[in-house]
Every structure is written in C-alpha cells, then in structure tokens.
Amino acid sequence: MAGEEVARKFAYATLNASIIADSGLARRSESSYPPGMAQPKHPPGPPMTLGDMRELGVQKLIASCLNNACRHTALIEVWSYPAATEIMYFKRRVVCANCGARGNRIDVRPNWREQPPMPTKLSFD
Predict the structure, then answer these.
(1) How many domains does the chain have?
(2) Residue 36, domain member (yes or no)
C-alpha cells in the first residue's frame, strides 16, 4: 500500500514537472539559490571597469571599511590604472588604514557623488 502511494505521488510530481516545462514556465530551481536570496530578474552584466566609470564622469573609487568598530572611508585615486581594470581588482588589494581589515571586510565602489549631474530634457512644444 505504501509503495503504491509513493508511486502515485512520484507520477503526479513528474506530470506537474512536464506540464510546467511544456508551458514555458520552467524556472531555475529554488535550491540553486542561497536561502533567503531573491531570484535575479536579469542575468548579471559584465563587471564595471575604470573605463566605464570614467565615461560616466567618475574619477575616484571610495573604499569603506565594513568593520562595525571602524567604519573608515577613503577615496582612491585611480587615474594611473588602465581603463580595462575591473573595480573588483581593488577590493582584493585595499587594506583599511585604521584597523587593517581587508577582503570581504572592505567595500570598494565608484564615488558616484562626484558624477556630474545629468542634463534634463525640457520640452515646451
């Protein structure tokens, strides 16, 4: 009796899986994402490079220490690095001057505060 129940449940699950796959509703399995993480709406794009950042008018990186006792921030001059250098290159190399934190304890990103304001398009036609 128990074997029949298991076989019936397996057949039902297989049927549902094939219906979902045939309908185009098949999605990436929930188990392939870390627990509590939302599924991405789009695949990630290429990593940002210094050239991309410079095209947007940003010339410096900002490094922030994630150590709760420190929270030090500093600007990093990157004008001497080639345009193809990825921002993540710096995350692996930056060390906090206050507490010595490095790696995952440092957040490095473009300093968006220095980006020039985008022109607005006003049309009174």
Answers:
(1) 2
(2) no
Whether 60 and 99 map to the same domain: the answer is yes
| Interatomic CA distance for residues 54 and 45, integer angstroms | 18
pTM: 0.61
Count the residues in the chain: 125
- Cα–Cα distances in angstroms (integers) from residue 78 to residues 49, 87, 93, in the given order: 11, 10, 13
| Within a domain: 13 | yes
Convert the pLDDT of each residue in 68-121 to its tens digit: 999 999 999 999 999 999 999 999 999 999 999 999 999 999 999 998 887 777
Distance in angstroms (rounded) separating the CA atoms of residues 26 and 112: 38
Terminal alpha carbon distance of the chain? 78
AA letter at 31: S
CA–CA gap between residue 54 and residue 11 (Å, rounded)? 57
Q: Are 86 and 47 in contact (CB under 8 A)?
A: yes
User: Coil, helix or strand for 7?
Assistant: helix
Domain range for residue 59? 50-114
Q: What is the DSSP letter of 109?
A: E
